[in-house]
Amino acid sequence: MRAIALPTSELPDEVVKELHARVYTRGDQKEVRFDWRAVPALLPVWWNGRLQIVRWGNRDRAERKLPPTGWTWKATVEKGRWVGIEPEPVEIPANYVLANGVWFRVREGLRGLMVRTPSGVPAVFVVCEPATRYYRVMTRAEWMPVLIKEII
Amino acid sequence: MAGFIAHLDADAFYVSAERVRHADLANKPVGVLGNNGACVIAKSYEMKAKGVKTGTPIWDAAKMCPEGVYVKRDFYWYEVLSRKMLGIVGTFSPKLEYYSIDEFFFHAEPLRHGQQLATTATTIRDHILEATGLPVTIGIARTRTLAKLFSDTGKPFGAVAVLTRDHERELLAKMPVTEISGIGGKRADRLAPYGIRTCLDLADADGRLVKRLLTKTGHEIWMELNGEPVMPIRPERPPHQVLGRGGSLMGNVEDPKVLWAWCVRHVERLIEELRYHNVRTTTLAVEVGWKDQGWTGGTSNSPTPTDRIDELLDLARASLRRAYVTGRTATHMQVKATELRRGKGFQLSLFDKPDPKKDKLATVKAAINEKYGRFKVRTATTLYLPAVYRDPANEYDICDVRGKVCF
Ligand SMILES: [Mg+2]
To answer: Would you say which domain of life the source belongs to (chain A) (predicted)?
Structure first.
């Protein structure tokens, strides 16, 4: 997946104001799109009880200790590979997810892994797993984000 | 004067059903994908406006309508809403025929003395929207055929009552004859040389000519177009005499285990079809097409109508045994439910079935199949179909578009 979208109505006003360049209209509703290609790449997360906007991954390789991507495998997380930097599981709220040009609806959002970079900046990685058959046919992708409370 | 017939049809039903539980999808281009994720099986009017049709592969649809949002078909949710809608319509009219998951016919009667039927249609339509969140279109006319025509052409969110011959003629003149369900390309081609292009042309044509060109069924349509009801509302009547699933076995099959695996697969798909139409069957026929050696068939009967996987597999096993010929090579298979029943006082609720324990298992299985892909939970039998179920290189599963097969 390459982007997610959340209706502006689900985000605090200040956030929408700050991200106005990322606001799009779909149908008759405004939404903020969080795109991996945007600079900087950002994602919303539920963290410490509130919705926050944080860096998505480490695309610009600002942190040499972190992988230069925005995703991580569920299996890697489960093997404890991230333990050294005290990762926290978080929820990434989303209504729509974009993968290979196809937007699809998700119920609650995606699972993410939140880390603090050595310099203290929080960053989130989207947790992925091998794609289900349906997902693979729909998006032609071999892997998919781990969805919250649903399997498609 | 005879009573009037109403036809109710939910607008973009699968999409509307998704909007009932996901309000954010309102006014957006939305496509519902089949269980395989390969084809659009239903689309919103916004997506239709971009050229996406039922059966359009997801990849073409995504190009035509990049802003479109796709959701996976959730048949059980659609069934829940369908039954809810049916229950509501039942409170307005006791004489009600369940035609399909989102289409009913019923006797149209004024809700209050002296009420205009157009008002009745509007009232029922608005009530359904309020109570279920589903937009529907209602057409009221002298016959089923007319009612369906006027609701089909009154979409979306229409409520029309066409009660006089003059009004009928005015509308029929504007409709191409292909608007009538069952009069498609070939039949329309047969009519064209006689100058029959609109529904009114057909209504005004000579009855004997119509019978010659379109057989008895066409003649019945002709009578109904002229306001003579010949297809009454029958609450117990199933809309079809036979429902079937099947097709090519994708090559030569000699191993009886593989043949049985295909049979199980077709039975599973047949059950979805039975549920779509809310019918059960007392017979199950299995027909096998053999390489260069024609077809053989076997049929088995159940004492009570059923739509349950365990019972239907028992019937299928016996039927396949009858159809099977040792030493031959199979290339095709059909599984057919040939005696369809709606059952006495057929249920408005999904879950009040006679054998709770067994049904619970079937329901759970169905739910899991829905959730994890239709073919995840199954008997060990179908493991003999690795090429169909497990090998990602062979993605030739059949799509869920009704009446179509696409790979
Ligand atoms: Mg409909």
So the answer is: Bacteria
CA of B101 to the centre of ligand 1 (A): 8
Q: Which of B61, B63, B65 is nearest to B46 (CA)?
A: B65
Rounded Cα–Cα distance for residues B383 and B400 (Å) = 22
CB atoms within 10 A of CB A140: 15
State the residue range of the domain holding B43. Answer: 13-74
For residue A145, say if its preceding peptide bond is cis, omega within 30 degrees of 0.
no
* B101-132 tens-digit pLDDT: 999 999 999 988 889 999 999 999 999 999 99
Cβ distance B395 to A137 less than 8 Å, yes or no, reads yes
- What backbone torsions phi and psi does residue B317 show, to the nearest 5 degrees? -60, -45
Cβ B250 vs Cβ B23: under 8 Å: no
> Whole-prediction pTM value?
0.76
In a domain, B230, yes or no: no
CB B56 within 8 A of CB B39: yes
Could you report the per-residue pLDDT of B34-44, keeping only the tens digit for each?
Answer: 888 999 999 99
Q: Is B235 within a domain?
A: no
B83 plus B61 within the same structural domain = no
ipTM value of the model?
A: 0.95
Instruction: State whether B102 and B214 are in the same domain.
Output: yes
Say which residues have a Cβ less than 8 Å from residue B176's Cβ, sequence separation at least 6. B197, B198, B199
Q: Token digits for B110?
A: 């004024």
- Euclidean distance between CA atoms B149 and B13, whole angstroms: 18
- Residue numbers in A near B392 (CB within 8 A): 133, 136
Domain tally, chain B: 3
Mutate to test the interface with A, among B70, B75, B370, B395 (most CBs of A within 10 A): B70
Cα separation, B30 vs A44, in Å, equals 24
Residue B372 contacts A where some CB pair is shorter than 8 Å:
yes
- How remote is the CA of residue B309 from the centroid of ligand 1, in Å? 28
* DSSP-based three-state secondary structure for B197: coil
Q: What is the structure's pLDDT at B343? A: 53
